[in-house]
Each structure stands twice: as structure tokens, then as C-alpha cells.
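Box 3.1 A note on notation
Throughout this textbook, protein chains are presented in two layers. The first layer is the amino acid sequence; the second is a C-alpha cell string describing backbone geometry. Keep the layers aligned when reading.
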Amino acid sequence: MRLATDDYEVLARTELPLDTVLLARHLIGKIVVRETPEGSLSGRIVETEAYPVGDAAGHAYRGETLRNDALFLCRGHAYIYLAYGTSYLLNVSSETAGIGAGVLIRALEPLVGLQPMQRNRRVQKLRDLTRGPGRLTAALDINRRLNGIDLCRTGPLWLARDDHDAPEIGTSVRIGLSRATDRPLRFYVRGDHFVSGPKALNR
């Protein structure tokens, strides 16, 4: 595990593919950084789901509202919402300004700030810290106050890259949906300990 974020570089917007599905794959292996009063927290993205333009399962499907307006920002902004009244979920806007689509960050490998993450989640088991979209936001203290923030510049929440080797990426259908359930739009690091979901989808 890392001890600091000094060797991270901010992920420039120009590096982000201007396509939701390509972005979901591109973000695998990149890093979510959360700056807090206690210091930096970070985790490597090991699982994502794409919610492209026109997707019936996506929050942008019925158009722009006050709740989902961050999805309609240009690619690389945070869209954060409360799911089922219990868990915040972190998404990355993925198209040009005015077009709603996004990538859900589903799981992270925790890297920096393990003790604060454990306190935030009230768990000690490393594998359970950030394995799942609600768990990772709780561990990194991510909530609606950060909705709409630009993830392509350093600040309270940002995306980074380092010299980590490119992982082997698997693909499956998305998890926990009632609509558009058969689309292969979930991406994950094959064999990774921190990927969420059933084993049948993680081969």
C-alpha cells in the first residue's frame, strides 16, 4: 500500500475519451483522490459501469433536472447521488456539455489513508473498505457536497494516474438493474481482490 500521493498526476480532461463506454474502460487502473482535513485518501479504480447516452437505466434518460444536472457537464465532473436513501454513489460525467451520460465507479483498491477509511466505514477488514459503490464513498467521505466538482484538477476530490501497469480488463453485464440488464457495460480488473459482485460475473 502507498504511504503518500506525491507521485500521482492529475488526470487531464484531454486524456479522457469522449465516449462513455470507452471512458469506463479507460478509468480502470486510474485513482480517485479525496483530500480531507485528516490528509489524503485514495484508491485505485478496479470496477466501473457505463451509462451511455440514451440508456434506459441511466439517470440522464429522461433529461436534465436539478438532481442530475452534473451528468450534463462536460466529461470529468463528479455526479454524486444518494441511492435508496442510504448510500452515496460516485459517477464521472462522460460526454460533451449538455449531453447526459456517466460512468459509475463501483470499486476501488484502497491505497492511501487506510486508517481514516477504516474509521469512516467502521470496519477493519481491508477487502471490505471500498469493494462496492456505496462502501467506497463512505470510506472516502464522499457525499453530495462534492457534486459537480471538476475531477480534472486538484482539489477536495480528483482523478489521478501513476506508473501502474495496465491491468487485464474483464467485461460483464451491469449489477442490480431492472432495466437494460443485458448490456455488457461493466468493466473490472480480472482476478482483483477488491472487485465487487458475484463470482459468476468476474471471470
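Residues 114-121 form the longest helix (8 residues). Helices lie at 20-26, 114-121, 133-139.
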